Amino acid sequence: MSASISVQSVLEDVRRRWRMLSRLELAARLAVALAVVWGITRIGAALTATQGLLLVASAAIALAATAAVVGWTVHKRTQAPGDRALARLIEERCPALEDRLATAVDLRQRADSAPLRAALESDASRVLAQVTLDDVVPLASITRARRIAVVGGLAAAAAFALWVQPGWQAFEVASAYAWPHTVRLDVTPGNVSIRPGQAVTIAARPSSAGGLVPRLVTRTGGTTRTIEMTKSANGYVSRFDGVTRSFGYTVLVGSASSPGYAVTVLEEPRVQRIDLR
Prior knowledge:
Layout: H1 7-47, H2 52-76, H3 83-93, H4 100-106, H5 114-128, H6 133-136, H7 139-178, E1 184-188, E2 192-194, E3 198-207, E4 215-220, E5 223-228, E6 230-232, E7 235-243, E8 247-253, E9 256-257, E10 261-265
Parallel strand pairs: 2-10
Antiparallel strand pairs: 1-3, 3-7, 4-5, 4-8, 6-7, 8-9, 8-10
């Protein structure tokens, strides 16, 4: 800082650099916090990928944690310090100023102190001429904060990119429960008639269900049974061998339900009477 720079110019220069450092540190904290939150919840999503509601819970936790981190960061944001606070900061870093700079700033509020204030500012200006901005707000601190912000931002971006697929899956699972009409269920063979002892395979192919495993609900007489279907190349299947009784069935995915279908076992023809003529 040269001797020709006024005290106010020094204060403004320090304020600009302090504001830059503060914003970079804030960005670094936010980026690192988001990277940690998204990274941890992404691991949780991987562990619950096949469990629909747990995956939705993991995504909800990620959203809530993200909102909390952003809210905390905004809350912790500080306003740029006033002239008196900056003067104290400069004096802390430059002990040779003693109390001259802060006193000169305080005297600005008093109309009868112009001569004393001018003398103090002139004296402070001579000392400040030997001081650089790096002595007050080191450039190394700004560089370090910028590096942390960049690395944290890249880590947060990578964690978020890894969250895209399970996040969309969680949305589809939630939609399957909240808006079942968005799920299309292709069920085969639908209504079918078979011979006694014949095998029947029921297949289901849901769309937009986020990987939810369909459940097959069968009804025989007054008995209802729910079966989790098995993954196959083209969807999900349940196979019944040696069927001897008719039954009804429905396929469920989330809150979505297929129409009711029936597997009808045909009675074998029997000779009841032979008439000879």
